[in-house]
Design brief:
141 residues, alpha+beta, 2 domains, five-stranded antiparallel sheet, three-stranded antiparallel sheet, 34% strand
Length: 141
């Protein structure tokens, strides 16, 4: 995790690599920075975990379902819903169809990301068409 790992306390390593007296707790877990091999305090580890969490969640936006127009294709409606993640736009969309038992929706998200929103919308439409051609009404089951 970003150069940080944890392992069971190793008193031999601790004695040979630390100026601090050895700890007497035998079942203690110690966080170590893999790059420097220094023991980390709980506060240091919390700060690193917090930074990772912020980095992972930064830039995630809500799917904006109303911003793009519907595209009709073979009786299905395709609604691209790309959203921004870390400055890139994620491929995402909704495939809809009115069936005898009501309107059905299939939400999909793909790993593909794009530099701008228009590219993401165009790719989402082509990906939705591919899903429709390959799976048809089975996507609703």
């Amino acid at each position: 995790m970003l150069g940080t790992s944890f392992s069971a306390f190793d008193p031999k390593w601790h004695r040979s690599h630390s100026k601090a007296p050895p700890l007497l707790v035998s079942d203690m877990l110690v966080w170590r920075d893999a790059r420097t091999r220094h023991d980390l305090t709980d506060a240091d580890m919390f700060a690193k975990l917090k930074a990772v969490w912020i980095r992972l969640s930064k830039g995630t936006g809500k799917i904006d379902e109303s911003a793009t127009a519907l595209t009709e294709y073979n009786g299905y409606r395709i609604r691209p819903t790309p959203y921004e993640v870390n400055g890139q736009y994620q491929t995402a969309g909704i495939i809809e169809k009115d069936l005898p038992d009501g309107r059905k929706e299939h939400h999909f998200v793909r790993a593909d990301t794009h530099q701008n929103r228009d590219d993401a919308i165009n790719f989402t439409i082509s990906k939705a068409k591919q899903i429709i051609d390959m799976q048809g009404d089975r996507i609703f089951k």
